[in-house]
Every structure is written in structure tokens, then in C-alpha cells.
Amino acid sequence: MTKILFICHGNICRSPMAEFIMKKLVREAGLAGRFEIASAAVSDEETGNPVYPPARRKLAEEGIDCAGKTARRMQRDDYERYDLLIGMDGGNLHGMHRICGEDRAGKMRLLMEYTARPGDVADPWYTRDFDAAFQDIQEGCRGLLDALQGGK
What we know:
Layout: E1 2-8, H1 14-28, E2 35-41, H2 53-61, H3 78-81, E3 84-87, H4 90-100, E4 108-110, H5 124-127, H6 130-148
Parallel strand pairs: 1-2, 1-3, 3-4
């Protein structure tokens, strides 16, 4: 089983969007039993809060339910628990290293590394563009799933 943890700043916009988009993609591919997928934050400021309403609405528009998800902060032991820790931007990656230390096993990556246009997923908390964030995240998740399936 491949265990993936998506990470953003507060775990209320981008990382839960990635969690639920990826869950949908693996389910549609008939691979749900081969993956454990979750999300977390590098900060604790949103801990316990639900997915941000505009992110929740965008997911719902795409037929994706995220009911019951609440924000949690990433923990040091997540490094051992998960096979991949996927951040949404460079600041998240820095925070992941701050929490977990050295990436001895090369598990920490950025989501957009799995696309033809590496970089950051724009933060809709600031841009208010949840459509663009959804598109980036979906493209990244598709690329990640493709890479995990051997580049099919």
C-alpha cells in the first residue's frame, strides 16, 4: 500500500483539495485499496477547522465530497508513516523539513514536480482563485498517479 500525505500551510484549502482529488482519481482507476491518502498542515493555526467553504464548494462542483475533514498539523512521525509527503509550495516544503528534519529517504516533494510545469500551486487563500488551484492540483495528482503506476 502506498501512503501519501499532502501538505499545505493550514490544511483547509490546497492539501485537503489534493487529498480528495487524489482519492477520487484512485477510486476511478480501481486502485483505492492500494492507497492511503491524507492531508495535514505545517502550521497549527487552523487545527480542528473544516475545509474552507470556497474550497469545499469547488470540490462539490466537481462531484467531490470532503465532509468530515478537519485540519490537523503534520507531526514528526508522519515522515515514517507515509511513503510520500507532498507539499503545495516551497514554503510548505521548508515547513515540512522544519517538522521532520532531513529528508533521508527522499520522500518530500512538491506536487507540481509531477507536471510539465514545476513550481508552486498558487494559494487560493490569497488569490481567491479556487478554479486555478483546483486545476493545478488535479494536474499534479494525475501526474503523481501516473508516476506511481510506472508512467503509464
